[in-house]
Amino acid sequence: MIKRLVITTSVAVGLSFGGASVAADIAAGKAAYERLNCASCHGADAAKAISPTYPILAGQHADYLKHALTAYKRGAQGAPATANVRKNAIMGAFASQMTKQDIDNVSAWLAQQPGPLSVKK
Ligand code: HEC
Predict the structure, then answer these.
(1) How many CB atoms lie under 10 A from the CB of residue 26?
(2) Where exactly are the structural domains of the chain?
(3) Relative to the CA of 88, which ligand 1 atom is closest?
(4) Does ligand 1 lie within 6 Å of residue 51's CB atom?
(5) Ligand 1 centre and the CA of 91: distance in Å?
(6) Using CA positions, which residue lies closest to atom 40 of ligand 1?
(7) Residue nearest to atom 3 of ligand 1 (CA)
(8) Residues 17, 22, 24: CA angle, nearest 5 degrees
(9) What is the third-level CATH fold of 26-112?
């Protein structure tokens, strides 16, 4: 019964929003990275952070970045630490300011930036 309800709901959501309308917007991702001051720690190009102990984001896989940002957000909301929850005061505060769409957009933009993490093509 519950399973049927879930399936019906997801079909309805899929039909009303479609796939394309929730696609990441790369320009909006760059704008959000600037607006939220991510550059003050991770660097304007996201390839060189202000401290070598801060992670490099440029060229990281978008899926990984999305997962990380969502995990910080969950951690800030009080979820106990698990594989899908990150407890970090700094990033918890920043990720909490991001909508799901911000996270998708910023992750897509970061993944496209050249950096030492990316495989040269
Ligand atoms: C005050 C400094 C600071 C600011 C500003 C900041 N970060 Fe971070 N960020 C960090 C630190 C430190 C870590 C590592 C935290 C940890 O150990 O989990 C981190 C980790 C991350 C990670 C995880 C990377 C990985 O490889 O797992 C992502 C993604 C990230 N930050 C994105 C952002 C975004 C997007 C913004 C802006 C909304 C932002 N950060 C703003 C300091 C900062």
Answers:
(1) 16
(2) 26-112
(3) 18
(4) no
(5) 5
(6) 38
(7) 41
(8) 170
(9) Cytochrome Bc1 Complex; Chain D, domain 2 (1.10.760)
Question: Which residue has a Cα nearest atom 9 of ligand 1?
Answer: 91
Question: Following DSSP, what letter does each residue of 25-74 receive, concatenated?
Answer: -HHHHHHHHHHTTTHHHH-TTSSS-SSTTSPP-TT--HHHHHHHHHHHHH
Query: 112: which 2 tokens?
Result: 């496209």
Residue 28 CA from chain centroid, whole number: 13
106 pocket-lining for ligand 1 (C-beta < 6 Å): yes
Cα separation, 1 vs 76, whole angstroms: 34
Give, for all 121 residues of the chain, the pLDDT tens digit: 555 555 544 444 444 444 445 689 999 999 999 999 999 999 999 999 999 999 999 999 999 999 999 999 999 999 999 999 999 999 999 999 999 999 999 999 999 999 998 666 6
Which atom of ligand 1 is nearest the CA belonging to 86?
18
Nearest alpha carbon, ligand 1 atom 37: 38
